[in-house]
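Chain A, query sequence.
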Amino acid sequence: MSFFRRLGPVAALSALVACLTWGGHAVADDMPPHGQDKPPGPALSPEEAIQKMTVPEGFSVEIVAAEPLIVNPVAMTIDERGRFWITESLEYPRREPGPGKDRVKVLEDTDGDGRLDKATIFADGLNIPSGIAVGHGGVWVANSPDILFYKDTDGDLKADSKEVVVTGFGRDDTHELPNSLTWGPDGWLYGLNGVFNSSRVKQGDKEFDFTCALFRIHPRTREFQLFCEGTSNPWGVAWDKDGSAFISACVIDHLWHLAESGYYQRQGGPYPAYTWSLGSIVKHRHQKAAYCGIHYFDSDAYPEQYREKLYMGNIHGNCINCDKLERRGATYFGTGDPDFLSANDAWFMPVVQKTGPDGCLYILDWYDRYHCYQDANRDPAGIDRLKGRLYRVRYKDTPRAQPFDLTKESDEQLIERLGSPNVFFRDLAQRLLAERNHPDAARQLQGLVLDDNRPRKQRMHALWALIGSGPLESTFLAKLLAHPEPAFQAWGVRAAGNMGKVSAENLSTIVALARSPAPDVQLQVAIAARKLEGADPLAMLVDVLVSCGDDALIPQIVWQNLHPLLEKDSAKFMALAKKHDLKSTPNLARLMPRVTERILGKKK
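Chain A, predicted structure.
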């Protein structure tokens, strides 16, 4: 009521009437939407909007596309020809599944002036398409309850076949739908789901019942997995130069490093029995706890101080926040940098951030007065469905991207692209090489990975291209497991875990790496222990636990993989534990109360 007391009697009556008619079209224009401190004011034109934005010295903001070319944009990716794929939603915030008016649109710059001027509708009939990725011969779209795969078989940029890859995602909260489809460094397609969006995916004899989670799909086999669980309504997945996963989330802390098999703090809802939840990697906060999108920026189009950092869209703060990362054992710690962009406009809603072909940061803007479901649900007619913007943040006179088509480049040219100073080209070349999976290219990639004279980033992307192609050759895996740099060793262990079966010699090496001095390697051994055929996971997990020192992440990952084994193998675990003095193995001692609780809770 304090809001109405601040108004005069006539204005208060008008506002009250507007509040009572929420759910229809009448809304109080001067009422602050949820999460905002004051009324948003009138919408700005795209030209007015960029004039109000503030960016660091030397940078400028340019309009790449705007209404009517794009409206209500939700998700975006950029393909191997520099075309922008954007999903648009006029159905938001509709909860009911089924066909709708939404679509996937392809935008192109036909005259090279840096502004998109041609739009083609690739697919329509969708209902809040909340994620998109291009790869493996088609286009992947998150359209709850489904993850869809579209193909254009005749080259006219229009989908003419559709496959339901997996289904079972919920629509309880249309701010928490499956989103952010992103290719991982291992070649799997990753995506996120929110805490209040209950989902149940069935595949063969497996059933996945989950809410907030990072999931992944294998592009060839269509296998679905939960990579890890927890957080809130995350939106955006980013990968750093070592291939670690980061997400942004709302309400609770904003930045998370996610490791496979981990279970992270939830915004709400119950935890599975015996869960030891992991926390965020930050102690600081930005303006307000509503985030959308995250991107690891690495391009020489910007000065060095802006590279290898995470850029996140802050919805309520109407800006782009920036965090830098510091390695701490097997995990990271994030600290805040000054905001990269401030819109100074409450309508600004950054939903996606991507590096483009020119090396600049691109920002997709939903642009609406309403940021949260509270307003959208009570006044769906008040949502602005006629606006949407795409911006480029350009440093000085950074040149426009020249026309390119990576699909026409040879394997040798793509291998050279793996060394590009622009992560955009490294990522695309890596994916295309993995898709082609040519034996001659594989041999070149193996040599590149093991050549210490080549740039590290090029070698790492070469390794990921190999891993994305399929199982690693045994002799190459052996060399990888003996690599002098822990990051390459760790990826060897991770690849072996995904393969499931390796030679006896390589398995023996991985077992020994449980006592590696490198936290990255130990972490991956703990994750792979239950996946490797012929391994003794209990022994491996205990070896990691007693060897990992004071690492902040590894003991909890060990526990998440250990406690299911105690249902049947508790006696074996106790025999292994007795071989160690608890006074000299504090991690084991720390775990024993949890072990006791788990053993006492065994099914009869």
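The chain has two domains: 46-395, 471-604. Residues 471-604 form one domain.
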